[in-house]
Design brief:
With 125 residues, the protein is of the alpha+beta class. The protein is built from 2 helices and 7 strands. It is globular, with a radius of gyration of 13 Å.
C-alpha cells in the first residue's frame, strides 16, 4: 500500500483551534487540520510553513510537535506529523483551497464531521 507523508497544523489562538473543510476530492466537505504533503528534501516543519502559506496565505510559527498519526485509508496509508502552531503577529488566514473554516473551542471539536485520521488528533486534544 502506498504511504503518503503529510503534515498538519493545530493552529491555536487563545482557547480556540483552527479547522478547515475540504472543498475537493473524495473527502470533500470533511473537516481537517490544515496542512499538506511533505516534499523531497523538506523537513516536516518547513513543509508545514510552506503549506499554510500556500493554502491559507498565512505565516505561522511552529511551536512544537504533537503526534504522528498512522492511518489506513482504503486507497493509501497516511503518515501525518501534527504540530502545534500559532499565527505570526499581523498574519491573517485566507481560504484558498478550502470550502470553509472555523475557530473551535475544545468543547466544539465534535460539532464538525472530521476526516478519520484527524479524529485521532481530536482524541489527544
Amino acid at each position: 500500500m502506498k504511504t503518503i507523508h503529510v503534515v498538519a497544523a493545530i493552529i491555536r489562538e487563545g482557547e480556540k483551534l483552527f479547522a478547515t473543510q475540504r472543498g475537493y476530492g473524495e473527502y470533500k466537505d470533511k473537516w481537517e487540520f490544515p496542512g499538506g504533503k511533505v516534499e523531497e528534501n523538506e523537513t516536516p516543519e518547513d513543509a508545514l510553513i510552506r503549506e499554510i502559506k500556500e493554502e491559507l496565505d498565512a505565516d505561522i510559527t511552529v511551536s512544537g510537535f504533537l503526534t504522528t498519526v498512522e492511518y489506513d485509508y482504503p486507497e493509501f496509508h497516511l503518515s501525518m506529523d501534527c504540530f502545534l502552531a500559532e499565527l505570526k503577529e499581523g498574519s491573517s488566514l485566507s481560504l484558498k483551497e478550502h470550502e470553509a473554516a472555523k475557530w473551535l473551542t475544545r468543547d466544539e471539536l465534535g460539532s464538525v464531521d472530521w476526516l478519520p485520521a484527524d479524529l485521532t488528533v481530536i482524541e489527544l486534544l
